[in-house]
Amino acid sequence: MTSFGYNTLGFGSFPNRSGYNPTDGGANTLLLIHSSESNGTTGFTDSSSNGFTLTAAGTNPPVHSTAQAKFGDSSIINSAAGSGPNRIHTDNDGSDTGVSGMSVGTGNFTLDWWMYITGETGGNPEVIDYIGHLGGANIQLYWVTGTRKLTYYNLEGTGFTSTNAFSLNTWHHHAFVRSGTNTAKLYLDGVLQGTSTDGQDWGSTAHLNLGGYRTAGLEIDGHIDEFRFSNVARYTSNFTPATAAY
């Protein structure tokens, strides 16, 4: 049996996980989407203990696709086709109302996922839009079309763009981490891409958009697998991404 790459039976090979916060038994996982569903289905499940309601929205909403999967049978596929905005969201009714339990306040957190991009047909594709409801705290993770370098934006104006570009038609691991004294970091395939600060307070409620923004034309064209949102800093230095589902 393995858990987050650590062999609990005491035998077998151990991947290089330096910089990784060891398994917490799921206690620090706020949201977890595995996919692994039938092709074309639209129901998305939060496998964390929170069991948040997830809604696929837009005129061409995300679905499960067996065309690509990093782990398991399927992944989430989204596109900029249609008049959108195509995305998965956690807010209760799609009107940016916020959800109790989704906020990290001023604490540490990690957003990590696998992504396989097939093209760039929309505007600047947005992977994650995480919004708080105390003073409008917000981070956005997106890239400028053609660059394929993930960019971190926040309302404090301290964002930055990744050093390296990711490739099309290839699975890449991405992670954003806030840790310690409001240090913000982006990682691509376990390699640090940049460091800045983020002192925002997400208050008592928050919500998250995955695969697109709240307005149309900023969706990703491609697949997401093993999306996880945690209220702990899982990575503090370069690391080797997990070799199995969380």
Question: How would you portray this structure in words?
Answer:
This protein has one domain (26-230): Jelly Rolls. It is built from no helices and 18 strands. It has strands spanning 2-3, 6-7, 29-33, 55-57, 63-65, 75-78, 87-89, 99-100, 109-119, 126-132, 138-142, 151-154, 160-161, 171-179, 183-188, 191-197, 205-210, 221-230. The chain has 246 residues and is mainly β. Strands 3, 5, 6, 9, 14, 15, 16 and 18 form an 8-stranded antiparallel beta sheet that branches. Strands 4, 7, 8, 10, 11, 12, 13 and 17 form an 8-stranded antiparallel beta sheet that branches. Residues 1-23 have low confidence and may be disordered.
The shape, in one word, is globular
Report the span from N to C terminus.
12 Å
Helical stretch count?
0
What is the structural class?
A: mainly beta
Major sheet: 8 strands, antiparallel
- Please bin the fraction of helical residues: under 10%
Q: What's the multimeric state?
A: single chain
CATH architecture name: Sandwich
Number of domains: 1
Mean pLDDT over the full residue set: 86
SSE string: EEEEEEEEEEEEEEEEEE
Radius of gyration: 17 Å
Number of strands: 18
